[in-house]
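Handout, section B. The chain below has 183 residues.
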Amino acid sequence: MNSSASQAGGENTVRPLHFSTCDLCDGHVNDDSGTLRVLPPIFRSYGGHASFAGPVSTVQCLDDNSLVRTVLAEPGHGRVLVVDGGGSLRRALVGGNVAASAARNGWAGVLVYGCVRDVAELGATPLGLYALALNPMPTHKQNQGLRDVAVSIGGVPVRPGEWLYADADGVIVATRNLLQASA
């Protein structure tokens, strides 16, 4: 299910967005302006939703998920949190409790350039969640990290406010919402 969030009766709800990353790429095959960028094919889906899309917020952290936990406890409004964990495979930056918080708070998805844990809980959570791998080791809690900064995911720049689209065919980032008709 592709998703976007809206508020209904004071609750964060996620409604489907319909897209295909292949179709979006087909529409930009000759565009070398940087409007659309494809992330390396290194991510695996772990969440209950195999596809998701939304405007990007970012966290940059290494082996410390304190800021990730804080951000995902806030209303997501259909956004996607991109976590730049530096590609570290040493510790999991998102687990079952953090993912459940994100789903409750209306986040469309989370992309982790690092590891996650609690795979059974993640798969049962109504949230898009992509990561590099699993690792059962929790993080250090040192309250470190940066929020809403430009990050590099596998060598591809990702900036707050851009749009991320993820499905079984891949993950792409665009400078604008590609699902809205151009004005």
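Note. Residues 45 and 130 are 4 Å apart (CA to CA). Compare this with the example in section A.
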